[in-house]
Amino acid sequence: MTSTPPTAESEGGTVSGTWTGGLRRAWMSKLPPEKLLPDRQPAYVASWIYVFGVATLAAFLVILASGLVLAFAGPTWYHTSSLGLFTNSMHFWSVQLFFVFMVVHLWGKFWMAAWRGRRAMTWITGVVAFLASIGTAFTGYLVQTNFDSQWISFEAKDGLNAVGIGAFFNVANLGQMLLLHACLLPLVVGVIAVWHVLLVRRRGVVPPIDAMDTAVSTAPPVADAVPEARP
Amino acid sequence: MTAHPADREPADHEPAAKHPDIASREWTGPWRRYDIVKEGVIAIVVVSILTVLLAGLFSSPDEPPLTFQGWASSAPDNFYATAVQELAGTSTSAGYGPPYNTAADGVSIGPIAPQQWFGVTHPVDTVNDFVITPLRSQQQSAGTTDALAQWDAAGPDQQAAWATAYDTALTTANGDATAVAAGDYGPVPALAQGLTDMASAGALDGILTSQGGFYQTDSTKQILFLGDGSALDDAATAAHLQGNTWGMMNETGSYPGQAWLWLYSFWYQLPQFNSDNPDDYLTSHADAIIFYVMAVLSLVLLLLPFIPGLRSIPRWIPLHRLIWRDFYRTQANT
Amino acid sequence: MGIRYLAGVSDPATYLSWGWLSISVPNLIVIVVLIVLFVLAIVLPFPKGRDES
Question: Which residue of A has its CA nearest to C30?
């Protein structure tokens, strides 16, 4: 006789008592599909300043794609190949665009005081992403295998040695810097960026300062959606 | 309701009900149509096209690396003098301290001495790593071979005495080996000359890169040796890359550099961190002080939502009224 | 090398100096672009969206 599968019980359509069910319920309450992939946004999100976050992400994707090609071809390919030099140029300019867009995004978010309404973590993950990006770019400059990387490693070692970091983070060690630049740090930046974007999706875009929506009176904060019961 | 510390508190003269905490609530006001996927696709296409245009028009910087051959060929006297300093232990690398050796204590700010705490994690012996081992690695002229034999036969104290004496004499002669006073320098002049010849011929680059092995990806020794001389420093000065000329922000050629490092670079421009007096505390400890200052400032930026005063600047200078002008106009009309 | 690029980009940059302030022209361009983009972004009108209730 075949055993019947457990029926989905009342809690949001998940089998109660399961870890998976608990995780799914938590996810669906914080980031339901309409928040994750919205097709509407508050009417106040109407300014060109709002495009710089997605522009930063787009630049990050171009950095990753050009970096992937450079990784496959090795760190000295671009010195002797014109396609290599072009790929390196793609990587160089997408980094410049990345930082330009990120800084304009940062300025906009500051002047909008975008940390309001329980969005402190959004701000914090943004700043961490900024700092991690600077560190990632730094390792990139160190693995150019040209005069620039010679000078940068020679200078930077003093600052890092002075605070003890140089003892285990050796800017003159091409192998270490290359592995960190190509493997670890883009992953770190990517994870923080994803977290940052998910926080924006969860909390929504911050309302204007002193917005007075008369539809909201003294109702308690409702940050997460109430999960619908599924049949 | 407990206000989140990051939210603005209503001003003292305003009742809380007049400014309900909209920001932490779900938006129940008017919406507008939005297509997040389309926005992402447009952004990727636009940024990709922009990148291709910039890459195609301007290319990217790629100054060839300096080599020991280049250094020894263009500035043989300086290479020779540096080789002597490596033997005498008076070069910057030889006297650096951790993480390379114990010749110095490293930088400390009061009791904070991480450079010392972590110790020597990347040992560098300038005498052998930079001079003796490379010389031994290939067949040398008779004079250099004899010099090596004389060096090997002597004890460390004798070796140090020869090297120090010659270094002092060479410095007194302003780096002119032909004008050095007579003295007991042992094989040191021949060793330095042998290394200079090796470098000029291009052999030293390969030897230092491989360091006796087959695979090698750590360029520390080459960078330290190269930086002990004038070639690297002069090239950096010519390219405006020195720390006290905003070099941290700059790039070779006519390319944009790292504008985002402007604040880190700024401190190195202050005369307090740049004095000619090597005993000046701020100057000799600049690297550590500036690093800690930047760490604190980064923490301030990170924790901005919790810092009273700073977090109110957007309210005092209301640029937001420009950004959300349509919303405020609509709000005023309803 | 098959890449043609605008003449002079591999020549050393021009530097503008006022006292201890010194900036390369390319860096100055980047910073000006930053400011211009920011100002335009908050000043330029944004297309009116299709509203939902």
Answer: A100
In chain A, domain spans: 47-203
Tens-place pLDDT, residues B222-246? 999 999 999 999 999 999 999 999 9
Across the interface, do B251 and C26 touch by the CB < 8 Å criterion?
Answer: yes
Could you report the predicted ipTM of this complex, rounded to two decimals?
0.92
A110 interfacial to chain C (CB closer than 8 Å): no
- B27 phi and psi angles, rounded to 5 deg: -75, 125
CA distance B169 to B163: 10
Say whether pLDDT at A154 is over 50. yes
Q: Which two tokens stand for residue C28?
A: 């100055």
Measured between beta carbons, the chain A residues lying within 8 angstroms of B60 are: 85, 88-89, 91-93
CA A107 to CA A112: how far, in whole Å?
Answer: 9
Q: What confidence tens digit (pLDDT) does each residue in A128-142 have?
A: 999 999 999 999 999
Whether residues C42 and A108 touch (CB distance < 8 A) is answered with: yes
A72 inside 8 A of chain C by CB: no
Of the CATH numbers 2.40.30.20, 3.40.50.1980, 1.20.810.10, 3.40.50.410, which one belongs to the domain with range A47-203?
A: 1.20.810.10
How far apart, in whole angstroms, are the C-alpha atoms of residue B222 and residue B224?
6
Q: Which of B97, B71, B94 is nearest to B233 (CA)?
A: B71
Residue B58, pLDDT score: 96
Separation CA C53–CA C43 (nearest Å)? 27
Rounded Cα distance, A121 and B303, in Å: 10
**Chain C residues with CB-CB distance to B319 below 8 A:** 42
Collect all residues of chain B within an 8 Å Cβ-Cβ radius of residue A181: none
